[in-house]
Each structure stands twice: as structure tokens, then as C-alpha cells.
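pasting for ref
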Amino acid sequence: MPTKPAPDRLYGRTKGKKLRPRQELLLATLLPRVAWPEVPFGGAVRETWLEIGFGGGEHAHALALANPDAGIIAAEVFENGICSLLSRLTAEELPPANLRLFTNDARPLLRGMVDGSLSRLFLMFPDPWPKARHAKRRFVHPEMLREAARVLRPGGEWRIASDDPTYQAWTDAVLAAQDDFIVERSLSRPAGWPPTRYEAKAILAGRQPVYWRLERLG
């Protein structure tokens, strides 16, 4: 079980390969049109969902298209991932009115949210931070569980998935020590969970993903 407090940020680097001119253009022109909180949701949004670390963006994008009445905030700091999601949006005449990108650390965003303001929270295949000295960076942490419990409404759902054995054992241990959520654990992706490219890579490499569904107690 973790004993050190969680740090102010969860991520390492924010830049990978040098961006291509088209990617730079997407950051300069499209990102401001979908940036949260600068651009509020449009349409008939009845509830708010948050994905922390959206990776390539396919999961957040699928959620937005399948749930037009839910406002999806997709948080990611890695530039290449941000550009990947923006590239998906260029194939559409207009970006989804219910999808917004937050490109800074999700921890302060979560802390600034009103109690009970989220209906769903997603953490899909996060960086496992496998070294023991980096364990405090893992989002599944007692401190962040308390924060997640605060911002999720009673009956709200938190979905977690990981293919890393160290992170899986860590998550099991952290969840076993809390009493804010009912926990369901599965070795098969539950119905209604969009797939991700990280999941596909894990399965192809022979790694077994684990899926947790947490329901916020009232």
C-alpha cells in the first residue's frame, strides 16, 4: 500500500517526436475550438464525464459519438496524443459538441470540480510507473480515490483498465482498503466499454488486461 502523498503532477514528459507541420497546425487552429474550460459544451448535455490520460483519443471519441447527451472532458498532456485525437476530429464537418480537450494535468482539474459534478470517470491503461520510487505518481492512489469519490455523484461510475501486472496488484490493494465504492473486477472488457489501441497491443503481446468498475456509494 502507498504511504507517500501523491505528487502535484502524474506525468513525465509531454513531448515525443518533433511534430509535423500538420500537427502544429492542428494545435494552433483546432485545439482552441475544443479546449476546456475555455469552450463550454454545446447541445443538450445532461451530465459530465472525464477521461484521464486519453492516449490516442479513440476511447474518448467513441464515448462522445455514442453518448451525445454526455459532456466528455478528455484530459491528456502528451502532445502526440493530443494531435492524434485532433486528427480524428478533422474527418468530421464539425467537432462533436459534447467533446472537449483539457491539455494540462488532470489532478488540479479534478480538485477544482464541484462535489458530485461527474457521472463517470475513466482511467484506461494508464502509465504504470513500474519503479517503486515512482509509485506515488500512479493515479490509483488513496488520496486520489478520496478525490474521485468527492466529485462523482452517488451511483456514479469509475472505469479502470490496466494490462500491467504491477499496476493490477497495486490497484487491487488500494481498492481493497477503501469503502467509498462497490468494486467489480473482470478479465473481459465489459459491454459498453470502447476498445483502445493500448488494449489491442497488450492482448497481441500476450498480456492479460484487467477491468475494474467502481460504483460510488450514496
